[in-house]
Design a protein that fits this description.
Four copies of one chain form a homotetramer. With 144 residues, chain A is an alpha+beta fold. Chain A has four helices and four strands, in the order αββααββα.
């Protein structure tokens, strides 16, 4: 199952609303459960460098079914996944990417946000996911 | 000067309307005048392979300030620009990419569409550009 | 708005003068506000490996509207942006890249310098930017 | 032996003069005999897509010690080098790249030009090389 365009746009609209409340300029990307881009916006004055980061946060989060910040705790020097960022044509492992899981616990995609401090990036991504209904992740969410 | 998000979304909405009229499923990308992604949608059931093609049509069209189909006439075997597709990390030189030029003749971005036969791709891209007001290109449109 | 070739060459000339004063051999790159290369020189005997570093310092600095060294403080192990270098086909996050901002506070491009110790690289980049008039960055410089 | 920065800049100045005479906006790249970038300019209003093409014309011409247009005759469908453009991270095999050979017949670098019709691109590249003294190529020029 994949996130529909209708849902992707709903998530982006909610994320953007949150970005405006935080007075930030964000790039917001949604990928489906194949980690393929579904929808994207770059708000005016957002960093050009955030385009790729937002997309990579979404793909990273989808690739492993977890928030990017969680993965980043495991990829620090001395930790089990040190250097994982070199895989998959580049991962981004700091906060701002969150999986989208449907009401049956199935991973249907992910959202990635970049453009401010990572706390804001993550808050905006969460706002996008929340509008679709599910933020609690099952232990190993996966797609059908 | 760069296309704003408001304009990019207006162009995508018009392109999508045209895509629905043609009963097609399209990927639609808008880049700014630096050829950096501004907005993107993939309609449900559109080919995953069209994501990259739509984006590359937009960047190709921006890179050279002309419709991708025009460039493609020059890149055929035996023609002056044969093999140009090998530059810039890959160009797409068949129809479906159109520059966005403002009322002063300045290139502000480009739109790229992929998902159907190239005539439809081009028609959908044109529909997107038309809503922003300008479809006639100056001889050498460029950004300020 | 983009840096003109006249300005880019003025910046490179000033940077090169500084490089000679410091008795260094530098690669010096200028990109416009779309992070696309505008002008470049490699001084005789400069490291070949510095070509790509100088260009990446310029693009990195343009992508995020800040000096590369600032970004590098945030990308250390345990810091919020650890691993950001994996985005955008490779960033360089140690000193030597500086944004070029015009008198209205608009980002018009960036300069990147590589070839010596990072203190020298940064000093040469700053010398290049200074001749264009603005070295104080607004909080979120951006292009129009 | 490698082209010096002094010579590279002399070649670029001559090429640029020719570009202005032809009323064109060009990207002009010079590489050394290792095919590594030595100097580059993008004239105002030149296509952004020409940056990479100018550099690839210079590297292609250096890689094989011949004008890019010569190579392009051999890479057409049915010809011996069909598809050679897929090597070396992308070659450009239409006119506009010319080797720089010193008075002893040694290849010291190459110049690549992009931004207009290929006849103009080649003429501008030739004007750049001519100012360094040698345009007649030995059968297999090479570097020491």
């Amino acid at each position: 199952m994949h996130v529909t365009l209708e849902h992707a746009e709903k998530a982006i609209a909610a994320a953007r609303k949150k970005a405006l409340e935080l007075n930030t300029q964000m790039c917001i990307a949604v990928v489906d459960s194949g980690a393929n881009l579904k929808a994207f916006i770059r708000m005016d004055d957002a960093w050009v460098g955030s385009i790729d980061i937002a997309i990579k946060k979404a793909t990273t989060s989808c690739f492993f079914g977890m928030a990017t910040g969680q993965l980043g705790q495991l990829s620090q020097p001395g930790k089990p996944l040190y250097g994982i960022e070199h895989s998959n044509d580049g991962l981004i492992t700091f906060p701002g990417g969150v999986p989208i899981v449907d009401e049956d616990g199935v991973l249907v995609g992910a959202i990635g946000v970049s453009g401010s401090v990572v706390e804001n990036d993550h808050a905006v991504a969460e706002a996008g996911v929340k509008v679709l209904g599910v933020t609690e992740l099952p232990e190993h969410p996966w797609r059908t």
